[in-house]
Amino acid sequence: MPVNAVSVGELCRFVARQGDLDLRFTPAPLAEEGRELHQWVAEQRTAEWGDDFSAEVSLSIEHAGITLRGRADGWLPTLPQVEEVKSFRGKLNKMPENRRSLHWAQVQCYGWMLCEREQLETIRLALVYVDADQHSEQILVEYWTRADLAARCTAWCQAYADWLARLTTHREARLAAAAQLAFPYNAMHAGQRTLAENVYIASQRGQSLLAEAPTGTGKTLACLFPALKASARYDKCFFLTAKTPGRALALEGLRQLALEPLVVVELIARTKACEYPGQACHGEECPLAQGFFDRLPAARAAAFERQWLDAAALRQVAAEFSICPYYLSQEMCRWADVVVADYNYYFDAGGLLHALVQENGWRALLLIDEAHNLADRARAMYSCALTRKDNRAVRKLLPTALHKSLKAVDRQWTQLVKPLAEGERKRLAALPEKFLAALQQFVHACNQWQADSGRSLPEPVLEFYFSVVQLCKLAEMPAEQLAQDYIVDVTKIARGEAALHLRNGLPGRWLAPRFEVAHAAVIFSATLSPMEFPRRLLGLPEDTALLKVPSPFCAEQLSVTVHRKLSTRFAHRAASLPALVAVIGEQCLAAPGNYLAFFSSFDYLQQVERLLSARYPMLRLNSQTRHMREQDRQAFVAGFDAGSQCLGLAVLGGAFSEGIDLPGNRLVGAFVATLGLPQFNPVNEEMRQLMDRQFGNGYAYTYLYPGLQKVVQAAGRVIRKTTDNGCVHLLDDRFADAEVRQLLPDWWQIELG
Ligand code: SF4
Questions:
Q1: Measuring from atom 2 of ligand 1, which residue has the nearest CA?
Q2: What gap in Å lies between CA 320 and CA 299, rounded to an integer?
Q3: pLDDT digit string (tens) for 604-642?
Q4: pLDDT at 326
Q5: Which intervals hold domain Helicase ATP-binding (predicted)?
Q6: What is the mean pLDDT of residues 328-352?
Q7: CATH code of the domain made up of 386-504
Q8: Which fold has domain 181-262+337-382+507-526?
Q9: If phi over 0 gives left and psi between -120 and 50 gives alpha, with beta otherwise, what is residue 249?
Q10: Which of 174, 400, 562, 701 is at 20 to 30 A from 619, Cα to Cα?
């Protein structure tokens, strides 16, 4: 659509929603069902009215400098009547007010457009609701004059045109400011410049770029600066991160660049943004959902004016207008220039940002930070697990009418695990048909119950229901994809408990369309080598540009020692423990300062901790524990200040092995007592076979590459600046192997000890 063209749907969404936010789950017809029901209504009308009736009538009109376009579902000039058809499930009187007002607004727009086109003075507006289960229709009718419709619709067009004018002014000012934008520091260093130039080229050309840039490159600014400079080439920039600290870094980078005007939105999880945890998102329970749409226009305008919309700012604006901050943040994504959010907002099956790209045809530039995490995160998004325990747990909370369908699922569990011994795991070629049918029947029964009762399932049941829905949806994928990309297995656990998993190993098939629809994607991290690994695993386009930025650091800054006499293989751990503890203890005594030591598990960490405490009681130890809360994690990091002498013990791949910044004397050395290889077990071995079939290098793709990426991330905590010095001790003989050494940073000068 041209810039000043707007669809009837978009106009009405903007101007005509009223009343409460109401996100009570209501089952809706599938898109395919909806199309069939529209077709069914059109056939009824044609049968009744013959050639007088026209379906799907394209309309357009110009007003206030915008072109309004849309397609009315039915038009009968002899009455004259225009129809808008909506399919639904459940009770029509339970339909939220904001949805009903939206539907009326749409048919009013069509009525106005037809009055103007046909020069009619009055028209009959029909809102046709088709019950997807009953195949019956309810028709709501209003009679309008052309003058009244024109008064209403021209006011809406004017309101939207005013908003568009504001957006246009903002965009022009932003592009002019971006053209003048200067890098916030005197100069970029060489690596940073290389990265920035390549990001600029990718943004200009609409190409994907996979960039490995070591710690210290200043990646965030090197990506954001050229992205903003090239912003005339795309509509939205999404800075996507794996973890909360990544979001903070992106926001800090944007603050430093200080481009003005620029609307920046930070999306955080609903659980963190919610002001009424435990309440449901509708006006009867949450005061911030009450009248949400009535106050949204003023809140939206105020938020847009404010421009800097991190979580705190959104909370303030939302409080000022008494609306929900989380759903305000979702609304503001539509009007933002830059959105900073977790990966799942774009890559998850129902990701908001991806849905907006599809809906609006935006050209989106994706900046994907810490991208070595993306494969695992995407696997989790497209995997699913069900346990029999969950099945039993929800039974107590489930409405009686649904017990029968849940029992049928439980019977299928019995069949599924019957041939298995306790503790036995079995790989399945696909989900057993009868099991899947029972799950689908359960979903259908839940939908029916919600439709008939007009109520939502209780919250814990709803979670279980969504897991079942997700599993049923995944099971719809082509058999070939399931066989190639997934491991399906069932395990019989003790006392009748069992678990069924659909484990995704190759997320590329899900991610590739997400990259395709984007204008360009810059996928960057300090650890992506070898580059073919993430390129193929993530499903990046063949023509993705690959870039390895040289490190700004030199070998003299970091002494790296491989201890060949130590083995941390599980079978050797007890024997090597005293020698390993001696290396750590002696280093800490010889060069006092702050150190971090990384282990493969908490058990191993605790063994080392006990022996260190006994043999080196003078060392101040600070150990990571399982399930640390956010404030405990912050306290752990705060324990490493420039004047302290602290030895932190942590698990490789955990909260302290990446994403923390301890420059200068805050960290002078690291010990890595593991290669980070995922555990050898039947699931990982099957994953290896899956990788082997796909890439021909299953061991490296499953174990070696992911493990070494974690090692390099952890060791990368030591040297953060060109003025830093320190040491890394690699406490395992396998680090001396050629295939492992080639995965370590090429600027390291490694001594074999
Ligand atoms: S404040 Fe919480 S409960 Fe209320 S609408 Fe927002 S997210 Fe829902």
A1: 274
A2: 8
A3: 999 999 999 999 999 999 999 998 988 899 899 999 999
A4: 98
A5: 178-428
A6: 97
A7: 1.10.275
A8: Rossmann fold (3.40.50)
A9: alpha
A10: 562
